[in-house]
Design a protein that fits this description.
The protein contains 12 helices and 11 strands. The chain has about 350 residues and is of the alpha+beta class. A hairpin with a 4-residue loop joins strand 9 and strand 10. The two termini are about 50 Å apart.
């Protein structure tokens, strides 16, 4: 890959705006026109990545994959040096052998504009402990923090559904960030005092996981069988490469088949390792309910201490797997294994109508 990079060659699938012809990047005229339009909207119309995605969706312009444009897709295009004639791999960048779609000066201007906008955005943001963990219970989309309203009135932060924000395709309510975060910590504190609930659910959790062992063993054996099957196909293809009458096109085709088998084999092997790790974890399960309760109480106590944002965020990530906002702002909190099944439905309303409950 590094050798190809130094030769100015592209690694992987063709990015939007290009196609691969005989192993080299060639401009895809229709897509390239849209890439230029995206840079124009960003620099000349002063539109952000989200508004650009909305504009493309409004014009009914379809992306290469999926049905609708997203802000992160536009961001990836604006920050990809491939369009200015460069290739990059593993943190290194080199002059590409392909034709550029935009001028280098345009790309550099876009990067500078991006830095300025990011700096302005960071000035408005404070630490959000649940960022990346909150999901919409109505459509399943992630929820991110936003400051609705005019800049002068941005007093509170809210978690907003990505589909509502980007496409107006979901009617999930905005949720106050501070209220949600305080309520989640409060409910974990309540759970930590319910030793009877913790004891019952730890027992059920361990029992449930042990029942999964036979199915996991069968799944692992099936994947191992697929790996062995692929291993038998590669030598047959390799024999073709020894023939003297193969055209360069045929050689490239056979090589692509071999590469495909090897990539599939690597993917399957990773699945085997993941299943083996899960089997090993279940076989060694011996959770102590009292220890779990003590861990939860320790979490609440330490979280209340004067810690910086980074340490609090690490605590959150170690304990909470996801937070789902359901209808009427009912909140389901799923904890990380072995705690993800430890839960109860809170009978009381939390702050300002938010009622977190743990997934049973």
């Amino acid at each position: 890959m590094i050798k190809r990079l130094k030769q100015g060659l592209w690694n992987g699938q063709a990015p939007y705006g290009y196609k691969i012809v005989k192993g080299k990047l060639v401009i895809h005229r229709k897509e390239a026109d849209l890439v230029r339009m995206i840079f124009d909207l960003y620099l000349k119309k002063n539109m952000g990545v989200v508004n650009i995605s909305r504009e493309l969706n409004r014009l009914d312009i379809k992306p290469r994959k999926g049905k609708m444009w997203k802000g992160n897709t536009i961001y990836n295009i604006i920050t990809n040096p491939i369009y200015a004639g460069f290739v990059r791999w593993g943190g290194e960048m080199a002059e590409g052998s392909h034709k550029s779609i935009i001028e280098k000066e345009v790309f550099e201007c876009a990067q500078e504009t991006l830095k300025q906008r990011n700096h302005q955005t960071r000035q408005l943001r404070g630490p959000n402990y649940l960022t990346g963990l909150v999901r919409c219970g109505k459509c399943g989309s992630p929820m991110h923090v936003n400051y609705p309203g005019a800049e002068s009135k941005r007093k509170f932060k809210y978690y907003v559904c990505n589909n509502r924000y980007n496409f107006q395709s979901c009617d999930q309510d905005y949720v106050r960030a501070d209220v949600l975060e305080q309520s989640v910590i409060k409910e974990i504190g309540k759970l930590s005092e319910r030793q009877d609930v913790i004891t019952s659910l730890v027992h059920d959790y361990v029992k449930h996981n042990r029942l999964k062992l036979p199915a996991l063993e069968r799944q692992k054996d099936e994947i191992v069988g697929k790996i062995e099957s692929l291993g038998g196909k590669k030598p047959c293809l390799s024999k073709w490469l020894l023939r003297n009458d193969l055209t360069p096109e045929a050689v490239n085709y056979v090589n692509s088949l071999v590469d495909g088998y090897m990539e599939r084999e690597r993917d399957l092997q990773e699945q085997v390792w993941e299943i083996a790790d899960e089997i090993g974890t279940i076989e060694l399960m011996n959770y102590n309910a009292e220890g779990v309760g003590e861990y939860l109480r320790y979490f609440v106590k330490v979280f209340a201490d004067d810690l910086d944002f980074g340490k609090r965020r690490l605590l959150i990530e170690a304990l909470i797997k996801k937070v789902v906002i359901n209808k009427n702002k009912k909140v389901t909190v799923t904890l990380q294994p072995p705690l993800h099944s430890l839960g109860f439905l809170s009978p009381s309303l939390a702050l300002r109508g938010i009622e977190p409950r743990f997934e049973e």
